[in-house]
Amino acid sequence: MTTIDLTSTSFNSAVEDNDILFVDFWAAWCGPCRAFAPTFQAASEAHPDIVFGKVDTEAEQELSAAAGITSIPTLMVFRDQILVFSQPGALAPPQLDQVIAAVKGLDMDEVRKSIAETNAQGS
């Protein structure tokens, strides 16, 4: 599967409609972003069961601000509509493969339980 371009109008539905969504926040002028792009594209082709999206931070400044993006590239991963990974910096292929494996291996019942416990402690 190829990557999809995400915008402020399509971002929320992409998070809601996909079990796993990897999002690359990038800009054309960013050297590390350009270096990470082939790695991200190769992963999207190797994992057709995952949706890979890209957000152009220049074109989507409001979306980038809402997502709290302060450095690019930034990779965010959503699983079952929950943000489970967010990290700035370009990843090498083996690092991205590790993130993919970790996200696929998450016990989402445990993740939801942990979130509920954290929220209960904060109340």
From TrEMBL:
Transmembrane segments: none annotated. The record marks G31, P32 as: Contributes to redox potential value. Disulfide bonds join C30-C33. The record marks D24 as: Deprotonates C-terminal active site Cys. CDD domains: TRX_family. It holds the Pfam family Thioredoxin. The active site is at C30 (nucleophile), C33 (nucleophile). Residues 1-105 form the Thioredoxin domain. One of its GO terms (molecular function) is protein-disulfide reductase activity. Keywords: Disulfide bond, Redox-active center. Belongs to the thioredoxin family. This is Thioredoxin. It comes from Mycetocola manganoxydans.
